[in-house]
Q: What sequence folds into this?
């Protein structure tokens, strides 16, 4: 008989064993250290066949921004089931229980990287970020002119590493505080990035007064420079960082990295015709609609808004919500004379983080309401595309 429960610390060796079977090769060294750290601070939803842990998922306690507002978020990772227990509905039950667990812990959003988009759509997650993976021949980079300011190159062996690393973290936090759909990186997440990627270097761009204006995090291996982070405060900062990258043409043959599809990446290059691939590998779900709406930064509400949410997996969301000018959110019965926006939980989740405009979902018949209702909601929703690059 299969039983479902939160995995306790005395079973963490079973968590590692199941992970190693489903995600190979087995972790060792710093990656193993990092995995066990997150096992210890996360919630692990599990399924047991007597004493054996046969299915699991790890809910990482994280935060992300939605139009500058921080939300507690459950990052779903290491979804694992032994092959002899697959296709028996066990992971379905684990996922359903994870929704309840995240709600109890106040994690109002959940993000994951799907092995199957259709599978997770069934449980209410939806795609919310399109990124471009690019491979740029180093010789196609053309210097943009004289560098203004200074570039500081550091790695973990640099005696000033802690000083610059602190500045990088501060800069990142200041930038994402005004951005949308970004992971809030606490100190243990920054340590995770260092533990999971050996040979990491940073290049920090500062203006003439010493203020950090941007940075990149990168590695160089096998004649390839891989950009792991690229954050800049303005176009000039971007160009100076690209100038630094271009200076590596003697050491590397290509540069690889990721960018938001909304950025039209590479169009400013002299020759923008290089290999690019659009990847959709992030899905999001609102766990608790009422509490999510309460903190949501609506732009303009002249008259109360009504939202009819359809959620087959989380009955607490299957409600009609009234949002008033003061930001008050209440659950109401079917209003007699009021018009509602009706959406299922997955499409609503993507809409609320800015993946597409409301008109997009109306056109695809994934949102319904009168013209007046659609116009009211369109005016109330903030605008801005999400950019979520981190992995669990």
A:
């Amino acid at each position: 008989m299969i039983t479902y429960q939160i995995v306790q610390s005395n079973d963490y060796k079973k968590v590692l064993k199941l992970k190693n079977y489903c995600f190979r090769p087995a972790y060792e060294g710093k990656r193993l250290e990092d995995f066990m750290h997150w096992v210890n601070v996360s919630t692990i939803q599990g399924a047991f066949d007597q004493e054996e842990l046969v299915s699991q998922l790890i809910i990482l306690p994280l935060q992300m921004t939605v139009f500058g507002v921080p939300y507690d978020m459950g990052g779903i990772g290491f979804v694992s089931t032994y092959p002899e227990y697959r296709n028996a509905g066990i992971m379905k039950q684990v996922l359903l229980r994870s929704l309840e667990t995240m709600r109890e812990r106040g994690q109002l959003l959940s993000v994951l990287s799907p092995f199957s988009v259709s599978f997770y759509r069934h449980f209410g997650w939806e795609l919310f970020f399109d990124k471009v993976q690019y491979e740029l021949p180093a010789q196609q980079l053309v210097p943009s002119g004289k560098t203004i300011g200074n570039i500081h190159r550091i790695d973990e062996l640099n005696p000033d590493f802690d000083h610059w690393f602190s500045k990088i973290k501060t800069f990142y936090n200041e930038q994402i505080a005004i951005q949308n759909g970004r992971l809030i990186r606490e100190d243990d997440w920054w340590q995770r990035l260092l533990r999971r990627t050996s040979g990491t270097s940073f290049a920090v761009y500062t203006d003439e007064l010493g203020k950090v204006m941007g940075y990149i995090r990168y590695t160089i291996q096998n004649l390839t420079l891989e950009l792991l982070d690229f954050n800049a405060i303005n176009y000039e900062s971007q160009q100076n960082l690209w100038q630094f990258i271009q200076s590596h043409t003697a050491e590397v043959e290509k540069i690889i990295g990721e960018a938001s599809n909304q950025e039209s990446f590479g169009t400013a290059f002299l020759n923008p015709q290089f290999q690019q691939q659009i990847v959709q590998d992030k899905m999001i779900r609102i766990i608790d609609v009422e509490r999510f709406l309460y903190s949501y930064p609506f732009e303009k509400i002249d008259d109360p808004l009504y939202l009819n949410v359809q959620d087959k997996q989380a009955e607490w969301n299957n409600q009609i919500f009234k949002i008033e000018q003061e930001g008050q959110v209440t659950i109401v019965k079917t209003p007699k004379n009021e018009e509602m926006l009706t959406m299922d939980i997955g499409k609503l989740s993507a809409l609320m983080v800015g993946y597409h405009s409301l008109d997009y979902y109306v056109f695809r018949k994934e949102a319904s309401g009168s013209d007046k209702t659609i116009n009211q909601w369109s005016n109330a929703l903030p605008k801005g595309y999400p950019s979520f690059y981190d992995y669990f």
User: Anything to note?
Assistant: The domain at 2-112 is CATH 3.40.630.30 (Aminopeptidase). The chain has eleven helices and 20 strands. The CA atoms of residues 29 and 195 lie 9 Å apart. The mean pLDDT is 95.
